[in-house]
Amino acid sequence: MSVITEEQVLDALKEVRYPGFSRDVVSFGLVKGVSIDGGKVTVQMSLATNDPRVPQTIKDESERAVGELAGVTGVKVLIDIQAPPAGAQSGAAAHAATQIEGVKHVIAIASGKGGVGKSTVAANLAVALDQTDARVGLCDCDMYGPSMGLMFATTEKPMATEDGVIIPITQYGVKLMSMGFLLEDDSPAILRGPMVTRYTQQFLRQVDWGGLDYLVLDLPPGTGDIQLTIVQTVALAGAVIVTTPQEVALIDARKAAAMFSRVNVPVLGLIENMSYFVCPNDNIRYDIFGSGGGEKEARRLGVPLLGQVPIDIATRESGDRGKPIAIADRKNPSSQVFAQVAKSLRECLPL
What we know:
The chain has helices at 6-13, 53-67, 118-130, 148-151, 193-205, 225-233, 247-262, 293-301, 313-321, 325-328, 333-348; strands at 31-37, 40-48, 74-82, 103-110, 136-140, 159-160, 166-167, 169-171, 174-178, 212-218, 238-243, 267-272, 277-278, 285-286, 305-308. By secondary structure, the protein is α/β, with parallel strands linked by helices. The protein starts with 5 loop residues before the first helix and ends with a helix.
């Protein structure tokens, strides 16, 4: 008979997703103990929720997953159910997603991994939407790596009203909020999970976003606490997934798309960034990261490929100078792509 280990049990439980999310019950911290007696396994979990369907689903799927291990003759999953504190988000227990006051459409810009230029896309897309005569805001939701202060060339500190409502910074016609506005230039944001959740909620709910047609959220890469907090609590109009053409980026883009699908947030489309490079000396196109990846992935997901943004020196220089290329040079090829994406989003999410 095979000897069952706690590590094997936990690995099996990592395949059990919290209902409605892409994150598993182990990473959510629900598993409090595992005991093994021969072939019999007992798992102790603790969960804060008011929905009786959630613990039943977790129990059934956990017992099935562990029961499939070789040598297991019996599985019992015991769940300690606690009511969440009134008015609080506890772990994965979420309240219904609601609208942000004064905002018609909230668009999440997401990616499964870092390094695909998501913040550059979010900044230029916000500017491009503003150029369609829409009223636009941009919330930098990356608490650990905020970049919108640099990309919009502002070090202004936001003010607050007597009621504690934060007044966002306005630059190039776009309302802005970022953790970078609250830190000194070289100061790191040292935050634990609960603080990250709190700041995220403050940036979304305690900022005067009033009168916006579109609020663009620049999410951090991945599918972690910040992303989960947002999809749990904010009624998103949809998400735009940013990727690059190569397979290593597309794999993670699929994970991001799957997260939104699980919580019934529509994926509005894909943007393929760093799609190609045109040499300025001879106008020869080079597909540095391959070609066709974004188009194939969009077809697989059944969503439009909103645009293919080239690798462009001017785009990089504009971002470093704090003036997004979409406003610095509207005739630039990248600017024209962002303008087309903004037009497509306006058609998809009319005012």
